[in-house]
Design a protein that fits this description.
The protein is mostly helical. Helix content is 74%, strand content 0%. It contains 14 helices and no strands.
């Protein structure tokens, strides 16, 4: 028979279990707060893209750009429908979800977007691009990593790179039901959003983000930074939205005008606003709309904000 001395330590042995559970709950609550805040920043980044003007061929509060089926109000309804999505996909990324789980969240978000806009595609590219980045950012955070562009991109590629490559290489089973982007990518042999994702969004990390930072470092404001970054993207990206509306000739024109704007000094030129507006009107006249570049600009705005310290705590 055991003595009382042998039984005495048992209550003390339960204490570490209780402490561990409490700490785990604290971490879960902190992660939930983080994901909600990250979702707010993703929506703000999309709103920052929407409000930019002049923005060649694209919808803004000033005009509808090259579009007859949408305006700024349509985009705001779409943004409202995506609030839960960015938080959910961030939480899934933090939990180490598979690409198929993230894809399902994106499909659900797309359906809510289309319902909110009456069937108009306002943010399909942003759902994919910003969604994957939110998942990668939250995954970094869950592992205690300092948020930086390099860490976010590496996490995206290490965690979901193979799946994203497979997603890019998947064949189009039904040409009639495939998205405009997939059909255009196949027809013109351009990458599109899927290839961007498989490569870790090089246009975000290697083009738009450095341009944002360079313009800000030169002392110009956020409006100028967004403008320079958008023109840099239009100069380099093979935008399936442009190919869909204007073919190869339209895509060549978009890149040519964008390179001319940048070669003229971008927003360092005193007449940059007039020049950018002239490009906008030309694109509207030709019905060109570089929506893919707009999505990538919003993604760069998100990475810049996240890595600026607001989400590091």
């Amino acid at each position: 028979m055991r003595s009382v001395d042998h039984l005495a330590p048992l209550p003390a042995m339960r204490l570490p279990v209780a402490v561990h559970y409490t700490e785990r709950r604290r971490r879960q609550r902190r992660q939930q707060v983080f994901c909600r805040e990250l979702a707010r920043m993703a929506l703000r980044s999309l709103h920052q893209e929407l409000t930019l003007y002049p923005k060649p061929g694209l919808v803004s509060p000033v005009d509808n750009g090259s579009h007859d089926d949408m305006d700024a109000t349509t985009f705001l309804r779409s943004l409202f429908s995506l609030r839960r999505y960015f938080s959910d996909i961030a939480a899934a990324g933090a939990a180490g979800a598979s690409f198929n789980e993230l894809k399902r969240l994106g499909i659900d978000a797309e359906q809510r977007m289309l319902k909110a806009t009456g069937g108009v595609n306002t943010h399909r590219g942003a759902i994919f691009c910003l969604g994957m980045l939110c998942a990668a950012i939250a995954c970094c955070r869950s592992q205690g990593m300092t948020l930086s562009p390099q860490a976010i991109r590496a996490t995206l590629l290490i965690r979901w790179g193979d799946a994203l490559t497979g997603h890019t290489n998947s064949s189009i089973e039904n040409e009639e039901t495939a998205s405009h982007g997939l059909r255009v990518a196949a027809r013109h042999a351009v990458g599109g959003a899927r290839e961007e994702g498989a490569l870790g969004f090089p246009s975000v990390f290697e083009i738009a983000l450095p341009q944002l930072q360079a313009t800000l470092a030169a002392g110009r404001d956020w409006h100028c930074a967004k403008t320079d970054a958008l023109f840099a993207l239009m100069a380099h990206v093979s935008d399936t939205n442009v190919y869909h509306r204007g073919g190869a000739a339209g895509a060549a024109l978009v890149q040519q005008r964008s390179r001319e704007f940048l070669a003229g000094g971008g927003t360092t030129d005193a007449a940059w606003l007039v020049r950018a507006e002239a490009v906008h009107h030309e694109f509207v006249e030709r019905r060109l709309s570089p929506g893919g570049a707009a999505d990538l600009l919003a993604a760069a705005c998100l990475i810049h904000t996240v890595c600026g310290g607001e989400l590091q705590a």
